[in-house]
Design a protein that fits this description.
Chain B: This is Electron transfer flavoprotein subunit beta. Chain B: It is found in: Mitochondrion matrix. Chain B: Heterodimer composed of ETFA and ETFB. Identified in a complex that contains ETFA, ETFB and ETFRF1. Interacts with ACADM. Heterodimer of an alpha and a beta subunit. The complex is a heterodimer of chains A (434) and B (253). Chain A is of the alpha+beta class and 434 residues long. Chain A has 14 helices and ten strands. Chain A is globular and about 80 Å long. Chain A starts with a helix and ends with a helix. Chain B has 253 residues and is α/β, with parallel strands linked by helices. Chain B has a single domain, classed as 3-Layer(aba) Sandwich (Rossmann fold). Helices cover 28% and strands 26% of the residues of chain B. Chain B contains seven helices and eleven strands. Chain B has a nine-stranded mixed beta sheet, sandwiched between helices. In chain B, helix 4 crosses helix 5. The termini of chain B are far apart. The chains are: A alpha+beta (434), B alpha/beta (253).
């Protein structure tokens, strides 16, 4: 047993510094609860007792329906055009803002919908089913931009930086990754130095979603290089702003209606009051934000996976070959079954993570599992959907190829599938440590 | 000021493929997706709009049927209605329920609630009767503005532009009145998330037809329900003369 502990320690040591920090930082997981008791606990704590296999609570069903109606009628018909012409869905984002979808978890007093994270997950899934790019915009605004401000901001910061971003008129973005570090978030080289009553930021951030359409960003910079990842702080920067410029829009494989670009900071000056949270807490803020953000991305991946499955299943009914609809062929049936299982199991993982978060229980492991399962389900369903459609799947006449392209990013951003595995293993091993 | 009653019907969703029951007594409704009748959505939207323009004070959503119809009432509340009334009808009574029974219920409620307007969808997409609005108006002896594509309140009167076969007809009727909504009256709003949350707290009153003095006995008996016959293949002809000859041969002309 001692040897196993040593192996585990060695395994942990080979983690990226940020993962080790995350494992030690998050609240310890309850020891070896029987699975059924944990389920019972979390459903009771979610405020409602409902069997997981049965229906969602009425309010959640209603909001899921309204998002689905919107996605079917307003997003589905234009998604192909948005993708082809790389168009940001500004009008749709405004309409979604009016519905409360751009700020689901934000309290009503600040202009949000005042709902829970499960509702948010359902909303993102339904929106993404209509258009993967729009789902991404919704997720980034809710989880990555509003999320940290809601959790770590002062009341004044919340009013200034959240309320205008609830209506869909403005969206925000989240700037953590740099050209030199993505997964290696602790190695941030963007610097922030204090000069009088101002912070001065210098550096470059890469792969920033919503960059060209955002009116503000939550950005991470090193305030104390000697403290390594404990020397990173979070800042709020309005966009546009002197000293902040945008790189060229990346030409992406998928989610092409969103803008992705570098953020370049050259002596970008912001008031001292624009620091989010305390000095040195930036890394913690980033990791906790990404934890929740994972549920959002998992939901986006679910929406894309479901859309791919819908496309394939519908085609299987209509396309005939060998004298019958291809849905009669076992080869096609097996694919559809595998796709359905992948989506449904990822969905349940996602719901569980959201419900744990709503119950204020630790959810790091479950969120990582949800993101991993959902993103792999999305790429799997995207791939198999094209296969079911055959030649038709390869052309832009059918949405299968767009789902395939949109799905791919979900395994990469907000923590690659590899990082998710490290997070899950870290949490898991911790549970088994004596 | 004034109160509006809006009728909302829970019907099989428009996107569902309808299947006839094996015993031909009706269509399969178990486990099938249901939603608010699209014309009822338009009616709710119009009522909520009138309230927003401050012509009326209160919008009451009414539905008749078993417990499940409360979902439909809640959707109406989430769109902006102030409160709901669920008239409980279940079992055989529900299966036999038709425009006459609904009209009687609405007439009784309109009097009880002292409504200035009753707004209904022009027809339901399941039975396509297009009778309830007209019957309600007749029972109340109120004027009716049916197939409305535009509604304007002008003091104690309502100007209604109606979509009729020949085009558009504009009429002016005095309140209280019954209106039925046609497709182009408005575009129903999506229920917003904050409104869905607010709808949780709005009241839905519960009552039975007997409480309103309405007898639910139906004068109509459904004998049999069948699917439309499968469309047969057609025949192609080369010339107009051939067409005429064929039509003459099978007795059509």
């Amino acid at each position: 047993f001692h040897l196993r502990m040593m192996e585990a320690t060695v395994f942990l040591d080979t983690f990226n510094a940020c993962r080790h920090f995350l494992v030690s930082f998050t609240r310890s997981v309850p020891r070896l609860n029987p699975v059924s008791e944990l389920y019972g606990q979390l459903f009771r704590l979610h405020g409602l007792v409902f069997p997981l296999t049965s229906e969602l609570p009425e309010m959640h069903q209603m909001m899921r329906q309204t998002c689905r109606d919107y996605a079917d009628r307003e997003l589905g018909p234009i998604a192909g055009k948005l993708d082809k012409e790389h168009l940001f869905p500004a009008q749709q984002v405004r309409e979604l803002g009016a519905m409360g979808v751009m700020a689901v978890e934000v309290p009503e007093a600040l202009g949000g919908a005042g709902m829970d994270y499960l509702a948010y997950s359902l909303a993102v899934e339904e929106i993404s089913r209509g258009c993967g790019s729009t789902g991404c915009v919704v997720s980034v605004n809710n989880s990555l931009y509003i999320g940290p401000i809601l959790k770590f901001g002062t009341q004044k910061q919340k009013e200034q930086w959240i309320t205008p971003f609830t209506t869909g008129e403005k969206v925000g973005c989240f700037a953590l990754s740099e050209p030199g570090n993505g997964s290696d978030a602790g190695a941030a080289s963007t610097l922030a130095r204090q000069e009088g009553e101002e912070w001065v930021l210098n550096g470059t951030k890469a792969w920033i979603t919503n960059s060209w359409d955002a009116s503000a960003t939550v950005i991470f910079a090193t305030t104390d290089k000697s403290l390594k990842h404990k020397g990173i702080s979070a800042f709020l920067v309005p966009m546009p702003h002197p000293g902040l410029s945008l790189g060229k829009k990346e030409d992406k494989l998928g989610i092409r209606a969103t803008s992705t670009a570098n953020l370049i900071l050259e002596d970008c000056r912001i008031p001292l009051g624009n620091m989010l949270g305390s000095r040195g807490s930036g890394f913690k803020i980033a990791m906790q934000t990404l934890d929740s953000g994972r549920i959002g991305i998992a939901s986006q991946a679910l929406g894309i996976a479901q859309a791919a499955l819908d496309c394939a299943a519908d085609y299987a009914h209509k396309r005939t070959a060998f004298g019958a609809p291809i849905g009669k062929l076992q080869a096609v049936q097996f694919k559809l079954a595998d796709m359905a299982v992948a989506v449904e199991s990822a969905r349940l993982l996602t719901w569980k993570a959201a419900m744990l978060k709503d119950a204020k229980k630790p959810f790091t492991k479950e969120a990582a599992m949800a993101k991993l399962a959902a993103s792999e389900a999305a790429t799997f369903c995207g791939h198999q959907s094209i296969q079911v459609l055959g030649g038709m799947g390869y052309v832009t006449d059918m949405p299968a190829e767009r789902h395939y392209r949109d799905a791919r990013i979900t395994e990469i951003y907000e923590g690659t599938s590899e990082i998710q595995r490290l997070v899950i293993a870290g949490q898991l091993l911790k549970e088994y440590a004596s | 000021m004034s109160r509006v009653l809006v009728g909302v019907k829970r019907v099989i969703d428009y996107a569902v493929k309808i299947r006839v029951k094996p015993d031909h007594s009706g269509v399969v409704t178990d486990g099938v997706k249901h939603s608010m009748n699209p014309f009822c959505e338009i009616a709710v939207e119009e009522a909520v709009k009138l309230k927003e323009k401050k012509f009326i004070k209160e919008v009451v959503a009414v539905s008749c049927g078993p417990t499940q119809v409360t979902e439909t009432i809640r959707t109406a509340l989430a769109m902006g209605c102030d409160r709901g009334i669920h008239v409980e009808v279940s079992g055989k009574d529900y299966e036999a329920m038709g425009p006459l029974q609904i009209a009687k219920i609405f007439a009784a409620l309109a009097k009880k609630e002292e409504a200035s307007l009753v707004i209904l969808g022009k027809q339901a997409i399941d039975d396509d009767c297009n009778q309830t609005g007209q019957m309600t108006a007749a029972l109340l002896d109120w004027p009716q503005g049916t197939f409305a594509s535009e509604v304007t309140i002008d003091g104690e009167k309502v100007k209604v532009v109606r979509e009729i076969d020949g085009g558009l007809e504009t009429i002016k009727i005095s309140m209280p009145a019954v209106l039925t909504a046609d497709l182009r009256l408005n575009t129903p709003r999506y229920a917003t998330l904050p409104n869905i949350m607010k709808a949780k707290k709005k009241k839905i009153a519960n009552m039975k037809p007997a409480d309103l003095g309405v007898d639910m006995v139906s004068r109509v008996e459904v004998l049999r329900v069948d699917e439309p016959p499968t469309r047969l293949a057609g025949v192609k002809v080369e010339t107009v003369d051939d067409l005429v000859a064929k039509l003459k041969a099978n007795g059509t002309i």
